[in-house]
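Need the bound structure for FE2/S2 (inorganic) cluster, inputs here:
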Amino acid sequence: MIVNKNDFHSFLKKVNSGLGNFSEVIVPYHIRSDDEKPALHFFRFEESKLPNLNFFRTVDPLKILFYLTREKVYPLGQKNHTRIIVGVKACDIKALHLLDKAMLQSGFVDPAYKQWRENTLIISSDCDFLHETCSCNLVNGHPYSESGYDLNLSVIDGNYLIGIGSERSQEFIELMKREITVANSTISDLEIVKSNREKVFDQLVEKNNPLNHSSDFSEFRKVEHKNWEEVSKECIGCGACTNICPTCYCLILNDESSEKDFVKVRSYDSCQWYGYARVAGGGTPRPKMTERFRNRYLCKFDYMHKNFGEIGCTGCGRCTEACAAKIDFREVVKNVSAIAQEVN
Amino acid sequence: MQNPYEVIPAEIYEVMQESPLIRTLRFKPKKPIQFKTGQFIEVGIPGIGEGPFTPSSSHYTVDDMDVTIMKTGFLTEYVHKLHAGATIGIRGPFGSNYPLEKFKGKDVLILGGGCGLAPLRSLFLTMLHDHKDYNSITFLAGAKTPKDCIYKDEVTEWRKYDNVRFIRAVDEVPVGEQWEEDVCLVTKLLRKIDMKPDGNPAIVCGPPVMMKFGTFDLLKYGYKEENLYLSMEKKMYCGFGQCRHCVIGGYYACKDGPVFTYNQIKNEEAIWD
Ligand SMILES: Cc1cc2nc3c(=O)[nH]c(=O)nc-3n(C[C@H](O)[C@H](O)[C@H](O)COP(=O)(O)OP(=O)(O)OC[C@H]3O[C@@H](n4cnc5c(N)ncnc54)[C@H](O)[C@@H]3O)c2cc1C
Ligand code: SF4
Ligand code: SF4
Ligand code: FES
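Answer from helper R.:
Posting the output first, comments after.
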């Protein structure tokens, strides 16, 4: 399907203000006016502002819309409204796929997460620009999604080519067809999309060339403590990296019960913090910062692989962007990976 | 859809002071909690918090349960202030259990100390219920001093069975305290009994140091790695594999454990910390 960009935006505007059964449309907006260093955040659609649907990832990970920073999990409230999130990037789609495995397919179901998943239509979009930390290509990713979305947008000049990824997007499509002109896409449209995608991917590959590393992470465990000490020496243990990572989901369960009602609230925790694994009596398996630093890398590349059959890094680059000590995640992975290959 | 965060209210009807630091709470959950011995539950006090504890009662009584809790910090301080009539909140059961079917017909050895006796009492009571199914049951229990011994009132009952031995030891007997049984580290009791390590299971639970040296001794005496059952205590929040706090290597102590064979986890790091 092909739609005109402006038509599509005005359609989203109508949907956001009550057309159809959707209660809100969430889109990325620039949060700074200078275009030198663009940064995007998800906000509810605003009448007067044009969203930036095809840029690169938002500053905040998509997880904050599905796995809230603080959320009541018992008793469970009913979330009976349907959201649409537009402009989701491939890296965040991948992260959601991993969270699905962790939260829906591991023998138990996190009911609050499940509700958000069921109530949200996801419209992804190809990346047309790159953030300096973007590195999906280093972990087997691409700057566009091939699955995991309900609909996907690719820009062709003043139009969007809309790809369909799920049956549940049907309602949205029907509504759209009633409101704006929807043309059929042609072979040449698809070819333009393909070549745009290749172009961005090539830019990404070139940009990240100095950071290339092996995609075999199985030997990370064998890397010695002294090497981890070296790569982690600047780390101050703030936990910014885990909080902003789209695939980190470690939680604290808080009890907010009263005498009469039991109430459980979950919020984010960080394995980078000293208290994380501390048990009664004061013992902890990772008393040193180096050990906690190492834990994060092993969790992403080894433990999650063991738990879910895929690594826990999508290459979104947020941890590098957020690091207070300016540690570049990609460089650490590259260095550790090189040492791991040697040890082998 | 079952919410794993669901809290089942339970009323405490009796509190027993087992030792200066250990109490057993007996409670009736509003809904039976169908646990298998070895599994754990989350015990919560409204507005204070919750923590993982193993029921210390037999899994044949799912509507009338015990937990034996040592005072060690923030939450357990509050637990020790609870009286009969108080309401607590239970989540669970969670985790793996002792594979009783593998113990049937065997000579079962149970080794524990301190508050590690809580899950072992559950196992022991559950096995006593069908004691004829086992060739023999030997329970070696340790405590620091005589007044630290728990489950004192039950010992006579436990010693009534032909194929069951319950042997106790204390590390030391301070002046003024009475003790007629063994005085040694509980692991030293192993030498006093005729062990049958060949193909038989041994179950260990206790403070980390005891678990570590107990395990090494049993291996030395010929128990097989895959027949050594350990209950691992790690930091736990959710209890069912979501919060990741308890992950050792790629294993979840809460979901794949708490009961592990030594064989499963021996190569993971920091298992005794
Ligand atoms: C599977 C399993 C079974 C267990 N079975 C038993 C048993 O049968 N009997 C028994 O006595 N013990 C058992 N334990 C140990 C028991 O869970 C701990 O002793 C208990 O949780 C200690 O809690 P505490 O708050 O009193 O101790 P603390 O030392 O104060 O805290 C222990 C942990 O709770 C956290 N914590 C403490 N206060 C707060 C707070 N205000 N807010 C947030 N977090 C806090 C700490 O960070 C720490 O990680 C078991 C543990 C596990 C993992
Ligand atoms: S580890 Fe860093 S780059 Fe990888 S997914 Fe998490 S935040 Fe993104
Ligand atoms: S990491 Fe890849 S998918 Fe994510 S925003 Fe950057 S280019 Fe797009
Ligand atoms: S206790 Fe939460 S994952 Fe094990």
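Comments: Residues A 275, 278-280; B 40, 49, 51-54, 68-70, 72-76, 115, 118, 233-236, 258 surround flavin-adenine dinucleotide (ligand 1) (CB under 6 Å). Chain A touches chain B through 44 residues (CB under 8 Å).
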